[in-house]
Structure formats: C-alpha cells, structure tokens
C-alpha cells in the first residue's frame, strides 16, 4: 500500500512552540499498532485487529465544541448552541497550554490530506499524543504518495492532546476541562481532554463545512455515497445511526465514502476522507458481511468487549452503544478509485423513525425535499442516552447541525439549486420502526431497506402512474404500493399497526413536532417549501 513504509523525512515542531519532543513522523500503521500494544494501550483480537478504549469519552462532546469568533468568522457563522463562540485570546491561551503540554513528550505526527478531488485537496498535519490516534488519522484521512509527502505544505494543523484538561475552564471561555476548537484564521484545530477519535474527524469536517461553501462554492454534505458500474451516483443523508455507512456499503455498487462529501459546481461529488468509521454494535457477518470483513489488521476497534477466546463480542454494549471501527476505505472490496464521481441521480434521506409512522420508502417533491433537509428528522430511542425512556424526536438541520457552521438555509439553498439542475429524485427512507413505535413494533429489516434502495437504483420504482403510489394523508409523501423484494403489507405504515386510531394519534404527534421545530426556519423558507411539510396536524 502507498506510504505504508516509514518516511525518511524528518520534521520539527519547534515552529508551533512544541519544544524538545521525540517525534515519530509518518509511522506505518503496523508500527503504530505495535507501539500501542507495547505501551499497554490496546489489545489484539484473535484476527490481529487492534482494539483500544477511548477512555472517559466514548462519543463526541458537542457542548465543548467552539469556533473562534474573530473578524473573519463573526458575520459568517450561525452562532448558537451548536456553534459556540470563543475569543481569539482564549484560543491563543489554550493553544499555548497545549503546546507546553506536548513539549518534552514522545509524539506522533502524520501528514495527510482531505478532499479526494485534486482541485479541492487540503493538506492537514496532525500531531497526536497517542500512537493509536495517529493510526486513526492514517485510516480516516487521505494518504499522500511519497512524492506528495516530499513537497508537503500543511494548510491545517490538528493538535490532539487527550491528556490535557484545562484546570480553570470558566476563566478561558470553556464549559469544562475538555474542548475541541477550530480557528479558521490560524487554521488550527485543538482537541484536548478527550481521546474520542471522532473529535478529530468531525473537527476537520466542520472546518470544511465552512471553507468549502464560503471560499470554493462547493456544497459540503453529511452523507455517504456510492456509484453503479455505469457511473450512476447515489447519496445517502442521515443523522447518526440511520444507516449511511451500512447502506452505502453495497457489494453491487462501488463505495465512494461513508460520511462526508462535497458537491462541486463541475457536476461531481467527492469524498472528504480516506476511510470509514462504522458502528459495530450487533455487527454480524450474515447481515453486514463487507463491514464485518473490514475488521482485520489495519482497522481499529473502539470500546468493544472481548469473549474468552479473543473474539469480539459485538452484542456487548457495556462500555457504550457507540462501539466503532475505523478502517482505510480499501478494506472494502468494491470501491471507487479515486473517491469521486458525477452528479447523483438519486438522493436518499435516511431517518430512523422510532414512532413507526413514516413510510419505509416514499418519494419527495422538490419542496418536500427542501423541507425535510432543513428539518433533519430522526428519533432517539431509550438506551442510548441517560434518561431517555420513550422515543424522542430529534431534529438536526441539514442532517448534521453540529457540524454546520453556516445558517442551515445556506446549505439548503445550495442543495435545492443543485438538485434542480441535476434533476435528481429524492427519497425518504425510514430505517426505523414498523408495526408500532419502539417497544411495540420492530425495526425495519435491513434486507428490506436494501431491497427498497436497490429497487430505486434499478429503476423499478418509477411511480409514473397515479395508481403506483398513495399520497400519505398526514405527511403528503408518495408511498409506493409495490416494491420488488418487499412484502407489500410493509409499505403502508398504517397497515402494519392494526390500529388506525393509534397510528393517526402518533402520526399527528410527530407532525406537530415537525411544525414546532420548523418555526425557527419559517421566515427564511418560501411558501412552497413551507407547504412541503406535513399536510395535517389533527383530526
Ligand atoms: P454515523 O453518522 O454515526 O456514522 P450512520 O448513519 O453511518 O451513523 P450506521 O453506522 O450505518 O449509521 O448505523 C446504522 C445501524 O442500524 C447499524 O448498526 C445497522 O446494523 C442498524 N440497522 C438496523 N436496521 C437497519 C435498517 N433497516 N437500515 C439501516 N441500518 C439498520
Ligand atoms: Mn457512518
């Protein structure tokens, strides 16, 4: 594999104020794995895959994510609870703190880049305190060739110091000791007090979600993507756990990427990353063979529990529900190289509706597509968060509000325009509950969701004639009556409930949650988009 040998180049970190560090530059992933084991920071599974624990944090900490508010960003960013501001002075202080903390230590440095389309390539240098954090960066960012490495000029710098926590957080604009901060002027990302790897990944994603639309006229998207043999692209938007990684990993289509993409004005889409970051809770070879087999040496498992024989017990969520694996994209057999393709023909909005009221598949009009994109609906179920006993609706604009520095309508306008120009079809897929809400019904079987998506991609769900579909009386979306490979009884959610009254009560409840959430966007949305929402809110 490219660049799996250690580099002979030497670099210094003095220019960043990191003094007297023992620098391990661009180590091969095998070497990083060995060092991790030697330091007692990880274990190997019986197939030789590295498994580590991320410590106190097993997920991102969105409340401790800040963006530096300065002349460049103050009028551009949509400040609020998902984009918290911090002053340049506080940033400078914390940067110094981290530089001092990292000085005199053994460190791991990796040069890589993001954005697979050469036109948008952005070089990133990452300095990590832990060897396995550096191996994660090898897996997730794009890997430069020897030649690219020779002439490498870093544009962004990521400093990752999980062992540092700010002792007086309130005095420096923080909530608590750990933090994740982006400075767009200095082009530096700080991650401290948390070893959760997703902080680095989603930090750079957030940076691109600002830079690409503001400076390069590219629409950044929280979506996965794949492409057929004859070059027809599909993309899948959705919040965490709705199925982006699972459904884009399709042996019959070439994987472009599982989480972050850009849509250019040259009619193409490209992956930001060089790897995938899959959930592994309840992972089985039978249901998800490609992801299961990607867990091999080179991959990094996070927060999993072992059985006695050294096998991973994927059913065990005793550390967290959010058990994960990162692997370089080439661990999947059928991939698109390089990771870009032409305009999508189909867009899927994935939602895990725990109320069991949205149809498992429906087609959206352009106005409905805009409405649902701005709403970004999914549901949270009991178990994943403390105190959540029954399903709760969760709305996250653009299916990724925590990563979107600009106002949601900025991304929505770009998407609407691109969708119209490209003439795409937009589908709403409920990968959540059927036959009743969480606790009563059951989650839609993966094989049926896959069959629905395959039917769309094969052109078997045209919905050309009025008789082919039914307009949902509450949500107004077009629900197909038949779909190859799917029992027809599953296509109408109401029919799966066996209790019309209970179904409509729940549907109205969800429709009202949509209305309540959309109020904040009403003044920005056109009359047409507002009409893309639910059609009825009660009897
Ligand atoms: P993230 O943004 O956190 O990476 P994601 O959108 O990529 O999340 P996945 O990792 O694909 O989400 O997680 C979907 C989970 O739901 C998987 O564990 C998958 O096995 C499970 N699942 C169960 N039923 C379905 C279904 N019908 N469709 C998709 N996924 C399903
Ligand atoms: Mn994913």
Automatic annotation (TrEMBL):
Gene: pckA
Organism annotation: Winogradskyella jejuensis
Name of protein: Phosphoenolpyruvate carboxykinase (ATP)
EC number: 4.1.1.49
Pfam family, one: PEPCK_ATP
Main location, first listed in the record: cytoplasm
Cited function: Involved in the gluconeogenesis. Catalyzes the conversion of oxaloacetate (OAA) to phosphoenolpyruvate (PEP) through direct phosphoryl transfer between the nucleoside triphosphate and OAA.
Family membership noted in the UniProt record: Belongs to the phosphoenolpyruvate carboxykinase (ATP) family.
GO cellular component: cytosol
Catalysed reaction equations from the record: oxaloacetate + ATP = phosphoenolpyruvate + ADP + CO2
Residues annotated as binding substrate: 60, 196, 202, 324
Subcellular location: Cytoplasm
Binding site for ATP: 202, 222, 238-246, 288, 324, 449
Keyword ATP-binding listed: yes
NCBIfam families per the UniProt record, alphabetical: pckA, PRK09344.1-2, PRK09344.1-3
Entry keyword annotation includes ATP-binding: yes
Gene Ontology molecular function terms on file: ATP binding; kinase activity; metal ion binding; phosphoenolpyruvate carboxykinase (ATP) activity
Example GO biological process: gluconeogenesis
Keywords from the named record: ATP-binding, Cytoplasm, Decarboxylase, Gluconeogenesis, Kinase, Lyase, Manganese, Metal-binding, Nucleotide-binding, Pyruvate, Transferase
């Amino acid at each position: 594999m490219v660049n799996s040998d250690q580099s002979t180049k030497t670099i210094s970190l003095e220019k960043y104020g990191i003094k007297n560090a023992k620098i391990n530059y661009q180590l091969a992933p095998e070497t990083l794995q060995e060092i991790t084991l030697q330091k007692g920071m990880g274990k190997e599974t019986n197939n030789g895959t590295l498994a580590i624990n991320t410590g106190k944090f097993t997920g991102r900490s969105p409340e401790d994510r800040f963006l530096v508010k300065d002349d460049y960003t103050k009028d551009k960013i949509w400040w609020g609870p998902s984009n918290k501001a911090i002053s340049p002075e506080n940033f400078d202080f914390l940067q110094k703190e981290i530089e001092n903390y990292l000085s005199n230590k053994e460190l791991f440095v990796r040069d890589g880049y993001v954005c697979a389309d050469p036109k948008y390539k952005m070089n990133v240098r990452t300095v990590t305190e832990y060897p396995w954090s550096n191996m994660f960066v090898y897996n997730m960012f794009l890997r430069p060739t020897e030649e690219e490495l020779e002439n490498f000029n870093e544009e962004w710098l990521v400093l990752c110091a999980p062992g540092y926590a700010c002792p007086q957080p309130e005095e420096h604009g923080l909530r608590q000791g750990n933090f994740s901060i982006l400075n767009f002027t200095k082009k530096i990302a700080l991650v401290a007090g948390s070893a959760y790897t997703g902080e680095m990944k989603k930090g750079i994603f957030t940076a691109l979600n600002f830079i690409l639309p503001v400076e390069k006229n590219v629409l950044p998207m929280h979506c996965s993507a794949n492409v057929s043999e004859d070059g027809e692209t599909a993309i899948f938007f959705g919040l965490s756990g709705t199925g982006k990684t699972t459904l884009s990993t399709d042996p019959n289509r070439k994987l472009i990427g599982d989480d972050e993409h850009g849509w250019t004005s040259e009619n193409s889409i490209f992956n930001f990353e060089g790897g995938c970051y899959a959930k592994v809770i309840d992972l089985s070879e039978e249901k998800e063979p490609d992801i299961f087999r990607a867990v091999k040496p080179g991959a990094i498992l996070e927060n999993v529990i072992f059985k006695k024989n050294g096998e991973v017990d994927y059913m065990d969520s005793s550390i967290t529900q959010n058990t994960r694996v990162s692997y370089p994209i080439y661990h999947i057999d059928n991939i698109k190289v390089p990771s870009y393709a032409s305009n999508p023909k189909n867009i899927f909005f994935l939602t895990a509706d725990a109320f069991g009221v949205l149809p498992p598949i429906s087609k959206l009009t352009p106005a409905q597509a805009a409405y649902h994109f701005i709403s970004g609906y999914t549901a949270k179920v009991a178990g994943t968060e403390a105190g959540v006993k029954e399903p709760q609706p969760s709305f996250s604009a653009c299916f990724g509000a925590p990563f979107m520095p600009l106002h949601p309508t900025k991304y929505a306008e770009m998407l609407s325009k691109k969708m119209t120009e490209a003439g795409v079809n937009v589908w709403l897929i409920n990968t959540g509950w059927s036959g009743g809400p969480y606790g009563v019904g059951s989650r839609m079987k993966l094989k049926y969701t896959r069959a629905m998506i395959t039917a769309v991609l094969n052109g078997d769900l045209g919905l050309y004639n009025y008789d082919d579909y039914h307009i949902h009386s509450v949500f107004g979306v077009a629900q197909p009556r038949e779909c190859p490979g799917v029992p027809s009884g599953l296509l109408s959610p109401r029919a799966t409930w066996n209790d019309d009254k209970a179904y409509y009560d729940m549907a109205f409840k969800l429709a009202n949650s949509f209305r309540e959430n959309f109020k904040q966007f009403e003044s920005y949305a056109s009359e047409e988009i507002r009409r893309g929402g639910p059609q009825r809110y009660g009897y």
